[in-house]
């Protein structure tokens, strides 16, 4: 997760990806496809890409309701993926990523653990993140897994992926529910061997060597916990990058590492969800 001190506030490593006016015009007409990073970095394009999602309601046994948004692929039935947002909340960038997952052949469910409009400032994100009740969030994610497993167009396979705040919750979902693959992007993985003992799915983690919060000691401690619990089906990848390196709207975006992490994630899901 992002720390309470902030997320993605450094200067760019290079210029952020940018669409030309002509690219934007053709994309909005549906005449061209653009790289995901270009779409995510452009608020107009991200909003357009995410507009294909449809709202669904997830209800916990205790009656708590969560509005999530779903993107459907062209070919059905299909495997499914839960996408868990950064500390900002469910915004157009996450919706656009869900739309891209659908293009890749997955039923993509973008959950909203806040139930409020996404934040646009660090203070707003901090307040939203701090208000999350872990027990209720866990139930919402468990019910999201059940929803996808039982979806009429699902193959029954469910993966989870999250970034920052959502990276930690992607792991938590794998600990609390029967899923088939877990991907963590620079999320909080501070867990004991006892806590990870319930993990039954293969796991992939993406972490930055320059990340001061989700750092080497934390991740290496996580690996030790996995080993102590007898878990062997995991892959941890390190990048010479900072926290939030895969987010082209943030100040720590690293295009090369973001693409490599994306390719590894797609290959991982293809292997375990097909």
Automatic annotation (TrEMBL):
<dbReference type="GO" id="GO:0016787">
    <property type="term" value="F:hydrolase activity"/>
</dbReference>
<dbReference type="InterPro" id="IPR051049">
    <property type="entry name" value="Dienelactone_hydrolase-like"/>
</dbReference>
<dbReference type="InterPro" id="IPR029058">
    <property type="entry name" value="AB_hydrolase_fold"/>
</dbReference>
<feature type="domain" description="Dienelactone hydrolase">
    <location>
        <begin position="67"/>
        <end position="272"/>
    </location>
</feature>
<dbReference type="InterPro" id="IPR002925">
    <property type="entry name" value="Dienelactn_hydro"/>
</dbReference>
<dbReference type="Pfam" id="PF01738">
    <property type="entry name" value="DLH"/>
</dbReference>
<keyword id="KW-0378">Hydrolase</keyword>
<protein>
    <submittedName>
        <fullName>Dienelactone hydrolase</fullName>
    </submittedName>
</protein>
């Amino acid at each position: 997760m992002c720390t309470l001190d902030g997320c993605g506030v450094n200067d760019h490593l290079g210029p952020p990806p940018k669409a030309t006016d002509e690219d934007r015009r053709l994309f909005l007409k549906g005449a061209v496809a653009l790289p995901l990073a270009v779409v995510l970095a452009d608020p107009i394009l991200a909003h357009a890409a995410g507009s294909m999602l449809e709202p669904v309601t997830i209800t916990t046994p205790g009656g708590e309701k969560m509005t999530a948004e779903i993107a459907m692929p062209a070919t059905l039935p299909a495997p499914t993926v839960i996408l868990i947002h950064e500390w900002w909340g469910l915004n157009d960038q996450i919706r656009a990523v869900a739309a891209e997952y659908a293009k890749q052949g997955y039923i993509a469910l973008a959950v909203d653990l806040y139930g409020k409009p996404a934040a646009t400032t660090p203070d707003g994100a901090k307040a939203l993140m701090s208000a999350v009740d872990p027990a209720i969030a866990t139930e919402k994610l468990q019910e999201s897994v059940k929803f996808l497993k039982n979806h009429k167009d699902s193959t029954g396979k469910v993966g989870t992926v999250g970034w920052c705040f959502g990276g930690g919750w992607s792991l938590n979902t794998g600990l609390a529910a029967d899923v088939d693959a877990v991907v963590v992007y620079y999320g909080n993985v501070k867990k004991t061997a006892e806590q990870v003992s319930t993990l039954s799915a293969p796991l992939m983690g993406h972490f930055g060597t320059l990340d001061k919060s989700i750092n080497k000691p934390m991740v290496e401690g996580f690996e030790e916990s996995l080993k102590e619990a007898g878990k062997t089906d995991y892959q941890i990848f390190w990048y010479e990058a900072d926290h939030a390196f895969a987010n082209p709207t943030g100040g720590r975006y690293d295009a090369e590492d973001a693409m490599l992490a994306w390719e590894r994630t797609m290959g991982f899901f293809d292997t375990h969800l097909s």
